[in-house]
Amino acid sequence: MEANQFKDFGKEMIDYVASYLENIRERRVLPTVEPGYLRPLIPENAPEKPDKWQDVLQDVEKVIMPGVTHWHSPRFHAYFPTANSYPAIVADILSGAIACIGFTWIASPACTELEVVMMDWLGQMLGLPEEFLARSGGRGGGVIQGTASEATLVALLGAKAKALARTKKEKPHMSDAEIVGNLVAYASAQSHSSVERAGLLGGVRMRALEPDENNKLRGDTLEKAIKEDLEAGLIPFFAVNTLGTTSSCAFDRLDELGPVCNEYNLWLHIDAAYAGSAFVCPEYRYLMAGVEKADSFNFNPHKWLLVNFDCSAMWLKDPSWLVNAFNVDPLYLKHEQQGSAPDYRHWQIPLGRRFRALKLWFVLRLYGVENLQAHIRKQIGLAHYFESLVRCDDRFEITEEVLMGLVCFRLKGTNELNEAYIKRINGRGLIHLVPSKIRDVFFLRLAICSRFTEKGDIDVSWKEIKETANEILNNNLC
Ligand code: PLP
User: Fold this and answer.
1) 273 Cβ below 6 A of ligand 1
2) What ipTM did this prediction achieve?
3) Which residues, at least 6 apart from 403, have a Cβ–Cβ distance to it below 8 Å?
4) 132 C-alpha to center of ligand 1: Å?
5) pLDDT digits (tens, 9 = 90+) for 255-300
6) From 89, 241, 243, 365, which residue has the greatest number of CB atoms within 10 Å?
């Protein structure tokens, strides 16, 4: 494809994308296709001779769209949001054009340097302590990971390297294998599955601790577990504090967990994957009181801050534990400026990395802090609006406190009734929700996901929820 054709194709595609997104609420949110739907729609082999781009574009509507779940439809309320904005899409085009692999500073200095500064901008927007920021001149700094799962794993591996070094000094008779075999990490039983996975991938024990009746992990629970493990000869070394759990958006008590971690020398990692975006609004920062006690902090601008996937922001007070733990230094990756700027390959698991800071830069500049705050406030407001509708109908109950853009609710009655209910809602295909279960109570989660969502859209979703409830309750359909 030559530049002239690229310009025509690109312009047509931009038109298609804008019209797809602006009219997205007209589409059925969940597709009706069956597994295997796609193969018969395209040839068995790649074409010998090039197709025309116009034909490819036409096939998007015929082949792809019938099998798309429309995550940016205001009728999509499942999981948590994934971000989507025009500035981020345009930045990804530029990133695709530059197409550098910024594993070291010299591999593309702008790629590293913009990331360092953007992570400082973002850290200041959240009100993170200076110790986490590169501009402080200390050790701290930020990095863009692909996902929150990677951030948790990377933090755990840094903590493991630190605990190994410390224990070797304190107990020189112990071998590395003995030390690692005795390490133990902690998280709430309601932390994301990626936390348990980080323990498995990192080859360490991960204890799931019971949160309190409000689904928050408490300091005394952590301290009791640490004391038990110390008595058993184990080495507590790492804890994850979730701010905004996946099931119900509960906030572990960071103000209590932080001091316990500091007292017993545990690395404290904060997983604020979804809710972290809300800290751009000062009025929500009370939920991260005690953040100064943490060693690492992570949230996903690609969830709720209008930066398209993938952009998971992670800050570390002392990245040297990662840099030293993962330092493999072949000649072909060395450069003369080594040590004067971060070489982000040491801060992550893969070697290769895209120019992701561009989309952060474009989004922060083209929205401005004010509009990002307005976006968060509007979505939380819409969640409270939905909550008020549910509370007015005494067939329903709200099961968790609504703090962010997630409402957890259920029909009063059995789990079986609610299981049949959500199946019916999703089967009708107008809106899409996913359920969760805490302490054996099955409930429905309605997340405000699309940036296009307006009050009228919530009315449509509520009407659908009520009508399906009428069907199932009046006709005994469960
Ligand atoms: N942590 C929490 C609290 C989450 O809610 C999620 C996903 O929703 C994750 C971690 C995993 O995020 P990622 O897909 O970026 O790994």
Assistant:
1) yes
2) 0.97
3) 249, 251, 275, 287, 380
4) 21
5) 999 999 999 999 999 999 999 999 999 999 999 999 999 999 999 9
6) 241
Residue with tokens 């107990």: 171
**Span from the CA of 314 to the centroid of ligand 1 (angstroms):** 13
Q: How many residues does the chain have?
A: 478
pLDDT over threshold 50, residue 415: yes
DSSP 50: P
- Domain range enclosing 177: 101-354
- Any bridge partners for residue 168, and if so which? none
Letter string b/e over residues 170-182, b meaning 16 or more CB atoms within 10 A of that residue's CB = eeeebeeeebbeb
Task: Grade residue 397 by pLDDT with cuts at 50, 70 and 90.
Answer: very high
Pairing mode of beta strands 441-447, 434-438: antiparallel
Give the contacts of 18 (CB within 8 A, at least 6 positions apart): 86
What are the structure tokens assigned to 474, written together? 């009046």
Residue 51 located in a structural domain: no
CATH assignment at residue 314 = 3.40.640.10
Catalytic residues: 192
Which atom belonging to ligand 1 lies closest to the Cα atom of 150? 16
Residue 93 lies inside a defined structural domain of this protein: no
Ligand 1 within 6 A of CB of 80: yes
Expressed in angstroms and rounded, the spacing between residue 273 Cα and the centre of ligand 1 is 5
How would residue 326 be classed by pLDDT, with cut points 50, 70 and 90?
confident
> What CA–CA distance (Å, rounded) separates 240 from 191?
8
Please check the confidence at residue 333 and state whether its pLDDT lies above 80. no
Please indicate, yes or no, if residue 185 is contained in any of the structural domains: yes
Atom of ligand 1 nearest to the CA of 149: 16
pLDDT in tens, 432-451: 999 999 999 999 999 999 99
pLDDT value of position 478: 45
Q: What angle do CA 400, 401, 407 make, to 5 degrees?
A: 65
Q: Please indicate, yes or no, if residue 203 is contained in any of the structural domains.
A: yes
Q: Is ligand 1 within 6 A of the CB of residue 192? A: yes
Which ligand 1 atom sits closest to the C-alpha of 147? 15
**Amino acid identity, residue 239?**
A
Say how many Å lie between the first and final Cα of the chain, rounded. 56
Mean pLDDT value of segment 150-173:
95
**pTM of this prediction exceeds 0.90:** yes
Find out whether 269 and 202 touch, Cβ atoms under 8 Å: no
Residue 119 pLDDT more than 80? yes
- Reported confidence tier of residue 476, pLDDT bands at 50, 70, 90: low
For the chain, what is the mean pLDDT?
95
Number of independent structural domains in the chain = 1
DSSP state of 56: H
- What residues contact 25, with CB distance under 8 A and at least 6 apart? 73, 74, 75, 452, 457
